[in-house]
Design goal:
mainly alpha, 2% strand, 11 helices, 2 strands, transmembrane helix, two-stranded antiparallel sheet, 290 residues
Length: 290
Amino acid sequence: MDQILQHFINAMVLGSTYALLGIGLTIIFGIMRVVNFAHGELYTLGAYTAYGMVTLINLDFFSSILVAALIGMLIGALIEYVFLRRKDLKNIDEVMLIMIGIMIIMQNMELMIWGGVAKIIPTPFSQDPISMGDISISPTRVFVFCIAAVLLVIFYLGIERTRFGLAIRATFQDQDAARIVGVNVKRIYTVTFALGSAMAAVAGALLAPMFVATPLMGDLASLKAFAIVILGGLGSLGGAALGGFLLAFIEEFGASYISSAYRDAFGFLVIIVVMLFRPQGLFAAKERVG
């Protein structure tokens, strides 16, 4: 029983960051219909930003996460304004090529700046785990879960309880109707891409101290983000959050009770099954963006 509870705790920590990653991708796709292939590189950007702030500028780890979020938001806004603002987003092929190009450019810039050697992000937390009987968890993981959970709650309240969140939801449901009632859809696009990018960057800054930062870490992050979105249902913000936790549980328990060598494969096997029997996703939204 203690072993199961230990895996449950590990999955909850990982799932909270997966949820941030999935929601960031979902909100961009749901509102703009843009398949953001650069999402994983924004995740990598957040990890390297945190590393650079802590090791090169001697900024404290907590502030480095905030800086990662701000830089992710800025880069996301620039991508939308410079590369997408004047494009016809309905031209899916052109937009996909643009996003793939941005992904390649960002990945090579990260490799050029930081090199191919993995970087370890130092944290102020003790290396000694917090033990409760046979269950233990590192202070870093406790911090990561708490920050990710708080951000998910703030995002939910921002979308559901604020006037700007209402404008985002209106655009999400029907862009033409939103324009008629005075919503500045172009501004919503910019803010949406900035928010989605910031969430990816924060996920990278939070997860990197638990593992390592590498220039290619965004490849797997992108695959997992798309898997989360597909699992939760395209266009469903709640589904993306639940999909993130579900993917983490599948990986954690699959690696523990079947084989750790196939940890990343278990989630994708489940995705294939879901696509075969419920292609709209497990938690698909009833309404989709038109």
